[in-house]
Amino acid sequence: MKTFWLQVKTCIGKYISFGGNATRSEFWSWVLFVAIVSGVLFGMAAMLAIIRNNAGPDTTSNPLYWLSSIIFYIFMLLGLFLLFCLLPTLTVAVRRLRDAGYQPWIVIFPILLLLGACYPAVVVALSGTDDTPPEIPLSYCYIYLAITTAVCLLYAFFLCRDKKALQVTE
């Protein structure tokens, strides 16, 4: 556990350092840290939203109306945390790619795919409501999101590789 926190501190300490290398354990400790904190914040907001929705409509006569503002602030905190973690995540990914023997510029592919997945994800999420944005066929959205998932999983596989496994033995 002590090593986990040291590796998280290392990632925060190398906030804008794209140079050097990062071990697998350093990279995955950082990813685990970001996932746990994000999951806890999102889980808290989701539980409060469920409690508020079960109390009735979101009007001022609802005794749990005040939960809406707390949910808003939790999502604001989550957004700020993820914004803070964006640059260290990129730097540790670039350092890990270099340590695994890959070119660091390939970090661009999952970033572009994830940015491109925002609109299809919104289309899928709003498909059953009246607030549906301009139509893209849902099948295209599902295909794009599946391709994005596959590329990100392939990218994670690259990050798990050990540099020794990539060297050609003679």
Describe the overall structure:
The protein is flat. Helices cover 71% and strands 0% of the residues. The longest helix has 33 residues, at 67-99. The protein starts with a helix and ends with a helix. Helix 2 (24-54) runs antiparallel to helix 3 (67-99), helix 4 runs antiparallel to helix 6 (138-160) and helix 5 (118-125) crosses helix 6. The model has no long low-confidence stretch (mean pLDDT 80). It has 170 residues and is an all-alpha fold.
Please outline what is shown here.
The protein is an all-alpha fold and 170 residues long.
Average pLDDT confidence is 80
Order of helices and strands: HHHHHHH
Structural class: mainly alpha
Shape: flat
End-to-end distance: 39 Å
Helix content percent band: over 70%
Low-pLDDT runs of 5+ residues are none
Instruction: Estimate the strand proportion.
Output: under 5%
Give the helix tally: 7
Number of E-type strands: 0
| Rg, alpha carbons | 20 Å
Main sheet summary: none
